[in-house]
Design goal:
The complex is a heterodimer of chains A (177) and B (348). Chain A has 177 residues and is mostly helical. Chain A folds into two domains: 100 residues, Orthogonal Bundle (Rna Polymerase Sigma Factor, Chain: A), CATH 1.10.1740.10; 64 residues, Arc Repressor Mutant, subunit A. Chain A is built from nine helices and no strands. Chain B has 348 residues and is mainly beta. Chain B has a domain of 241 residues: Beta Barrel (YmcC-like fold). Chain B is built from five helices and 16 strands. Chain B is globular. The chains are: A mainly alpha (177), B mainly beta (348). Chains A and B meet through α2, α3, α4, α6 and α7 of A and α1 and α2 of B.
């Protein structure tokens, strides 16, 4: 089922979700949930925190859709909302990351342990303010102007943070055996 | 191969299969979350103007609110406690819009009641604002002792919260308080907090709490309220705004790496129990570690405690005795940490 081509035509799924339909909300989750979870996971750094973020996004989605103007990509809008919720969570200090980035809930999956490479470990060492910019720019492909708006910083600060993040990644990787 | 290529190849897990089910269950239970805008439409200049206007409105409200206080109806058994308090909007004390929040986990069960022990625990509390200003004046002493209440075996838990200063006498930060708990359930029987200016007493039966609040001074007031207690009649309860009962409860929880459980907390009952009286406290083990505090080195479970969607407390609880060794809480521009300074009996 596609967001823009629901049963009743373009946007009908969004309209149904806005009206509170659980089926429409489920369909939106099935279409976007995994991508949003991965974005949240890369930002907050722990599986359960990422699930909390996605949970909150979809629980609040029907009401939030009242503000959605259906201009541009719905997926892009949803990602921006998710990024904001994840960043709010990072700032509020509610995360469980301090337990260990990948084992916060103790449910490490094989790829999180056996296949976790040096780059992943190096990304994990970045402080939040650098990692957020790195994830949003290099992985999610946001422009510095968008990152600046999301993080409440200037474009210049976003560029500086990205430069610092990449430098620290290089340093970290060079130091590893 | 670019940085982007490498970074995008970093694996990310998939969400739990039951996440959608949890989302739908939350919606069905009436939980609502106010999401931020997908795109900000407010410029910094507009934000500044709005903040200025809000500040002006706040000053206006503060300057006029006193004359708008609702007179206390002495004939009414359930007068609105919050009506007499400036800057305490009734709706602001709600846990969240919609029905009361539901417990996140199963009710705590399989308590090891025989593990409960009396003792005295003293904590030092430090608060850091903006990573600069540090205040380490708090000294919290919690005492748990055997007691009897109307022939029943009970625990009495008392708390003394002081502010310690170098060149002046210690001062009490909150009035002394004590609570009797039924030993067989860890449900409160009688809780009292009070000083010269006010007295707050709650008396509990299996399913009801009756509350008395008396405020002295130039304009004395009294309120009486009662409410039904949610949850199972044998389930333990904790008292909101007081951490003392956690000292007892944590000793008997069957903690392990995957443990989670919820208990109800009892706050000010007031006229609208659905908003202010009861809220679930969700506890979950999120890790473990060995930590050093002034009272010694402890192998601990790390628990998260959620009392509302907005607040979370981290608890470090010793694995061997269930002692509360350390608590951590963080806000936007502050963080607070309490560490165990001494204990009687001493740590092994």
């Amino acid at each position: 089922m596609s967001t823009s081509a629901g049963n009743g035509g373009p946007g009908s799924l969004i309209a149904e979700a806005r009206a509170g339909s659980p089926d429409a909300l489920s369909a939106l989750y099935l279409e976007h949930g995994v991508a949003l979870f991965r974005l949240a996971y890369r930002l907050v750094g722990a599986r359960e925190d990422a699930e909390d973020v996605v949970h909150d996004v979809f629980v609040g989605l029907p009401e939030a859709l009242g503000r959605y103007e259906e201009r541009g990509s719905f997926g892009g809008w949803l990602k921006r909302v998710t990024a904001r919720v994840a960043l709010m969570r990072m700032r509020s200090g509610k995360r469980r990351r301090e337990v260990g980035l990948h084992n916060a809930a103790g449910r490490a999956e094989p790829h999180e342990t056996a296949e976790r490479d040096g780059l992943q470990a190096a990304v994990d060492t970045l402080p939040d303010h650098l990692r957020a910019v790195l994830v949003l720019k290099e992985i999610e492909g946001y422009a510095h102007a968008e990152i600046a708006e999301l993080l409440g910083i200037s474009e210049g600060a976003s560029r500086v943070r990205l430069t610092r993040a990449l430098k620290r990644l290089r340093d970290e990787l060079e130091d590893r055996p | 191969m670019t940085w982007q290529d490498e970074l995008r190849k970093i694996p990310a897990p998939a969400p739990s299969p039951d996440l959608l089910e949890r989302i739908l269950a939350s919606r069905a239970a009436g939980v609502r979350v106010v999401l931020p805008e997908g795109r900000s439409t407010v410029s910094p200049r507009t934000t500044l103007l709005l903040l200025t206007a809000a500040a002006a409105a706040l000053v206006l409200v503060m300057s006029t609110r006193g004359g708008d206080r609702r007179p206390v109806d002495t004939e009414n058994e359930f007068p609105d406690i919050t009506a007499g308090l400036s800057l305490w909007p009734r709706d602001a004390v709600a846990q969240e819009p919609g029905p009361p929040r539901r417990p996140r986990y199963e009710p705590v069960r399989n308590l090891h009641l025989a593990h409960a022990r009396g003792g005295t625990w003293t904590y030092r509390t430090c608060t850091v604002f903006d990573d600069v200003l540090t205040n380490c004046r708090g000294r919290l002493t919690i005492t748990v002792a055997d007691a009897r209440w109307e022939g029943r075996t009970a625990w009495i838990v008392s708390q003394e919260d002081k502010s310690v200063r170098d060149r002046s006498p210690d001062t009490l930060r909150t009035p002394p308080e004590s609570t009797y708990f039924e030993a067989s359930t860890l449900r409160p029987i009688y809780a009292a907090q009070g000083g010269v200016k006010f007295s707050h007493v709650q008396q509990f039966t299996r399913d009801t709490v009756r509350e008395t609040l008396d405020i002295g001074g130039a304009h004395p007031r009294s309120w009486r309220a009662s409410a039904g207690i949610p949850g199972a009649p044998e389930a333990p309860l904790v008292l909101r705004w007081r951490r003392v009962d956690l000292t007892l409860l944590l000793q008997v929880l069957p903690l392990d790496r995957w443990w989670s459980g919820s208990v109800y907390s009892v706050g000010l009952v007031g006229p609208d129990p659905s908003k202010t009286g009861f809220a679930p406290v969700d506890l979950r083990v999120v890790g473990s570690g060995r930590i050093d505090v002034p009272a010694g080195r402890f192998d601990c479970w790390k628990l998260e405690l959620r009392e509302s969607p907005e607040s979370m407390l981290i608890l470090w609880v010793s694995k061997d005795r269930g002692w509360l060794v350390k608590t951590e809480q963080q806000g936007w521009d502050w963080r607070a940490e309490s560490v165990l300074v001494s204990a009687t009996p001493p740590a092994p």
